[in-house]
Amino acid sequence: MDKIIETPMTWGGRIHLCADDFGLNAAVDEGILDLVHLGRLTAVSCMAGGVEIARDIPRLLAAVSDAPRPVQIGLHVTLTEYTTLGPIRGLAPECALPGIGTVMRQAYLRRLDVPAIRMEIDRQMACLSALMGRVPDFVDGHQHVHLLPGIRDAVAASWKDWNVRPGWVRYCGAPERDLAQLPSAQFKSRVLSLMSRAAAPSHDEAGMVTNPRFFGVTEFSPEVPFGPRMRRWLSLANSGESGALIMCHPGRASVPAAGDPPDPIHLHRPQELAYLASEAFLTDLAETGVATRFGL
């Protein structure tokens, strides 16, 4: 399947906001759709194995078509917490994925079956491509799993074969001057920067475009106001001439029922949605200088 992007993601100074986890559940999807309709997002990352993905991808495509600003749609490679689209030898033989700690341990001990991982990434790419009628615009990973040893090579190989061009892959790093000024999660952000630098050779060899800088890492605490953190990320994103990607995890309020897929951050999501849908976010875009650099 060939890929044609009429409005490819451009970085040269632009600042983008991507909502993760589309397809996970109805509350997440409704919240993201709300923000697409309002023109508050420039990218949405989708879980091909999400329980609501088949129902809600047509709605996302329609919302993107009518949105006041261009929005790209990407694959959120999922290899932790949830279920796969097919068995993965050694990692998920019965399709039930372990947590990020187990996956990281196996990755750094070089115990992952990379060809089997590659097959699952291809299954996820094929599923989302079939639902969209085209190849996704970009690739990233749930819990940043796309940066791990072995997995990053499988992502790069899949990227080449699926001809995801002129798309991009998420880089989760930032310069030291930005890391030192982050409002939260500095240690996690530094670890992700190291992981991103280690993954760069695989991405470069595959000809994968990456975002120059990355923000949005947080502890997902519902007690900590989200607005001030986003305002800080916006200010840091606008402090340099290079572009930046900011991730977010909005969703409507929900009460998980028995049998629902786990969503450990469901109490935090409504706070992000409320702020991003508010006039305060538009004010922060303007006052930080990001409004003129926001999106394509």
What does this structure look like?
This protein is α/β, with parallel strands linked by helices. Helix content is 41%, strand content 11%. Strands 6-5-4-3-2-1-8-7 form an eight-stranded parallel β-sheet, covered by helices on one side. Helix 1 runs parallel beside helix 9 (269-276) and helix 4 (114-132) packs across helix 5 (151-162). 48% of the residues are buried.
Give the beta-strand count: 8
Question: What would you call the structural class?
Answer: alpha/beta
Helical residue percent band: 40-55%
Helices, by number, come to 10
Strand content: 5-15%
In N-to-C order, the SSE pattern is EHEHEHHEHEHHEEHEHH
Instruction: Kindly report the spatial arrangement of strands forming the biggest sheet.
Output: 6-5-4-3-2-1-8-7
Radius of gyration: 18 Å
Shape: globular
Low-pLDDT segments: 1-8
**Mean pLDDT, as a whole number?**
92
Note the main sheet.
8 strands, parallel
- In whole angstroms, how far apart are the ends? 25 Å
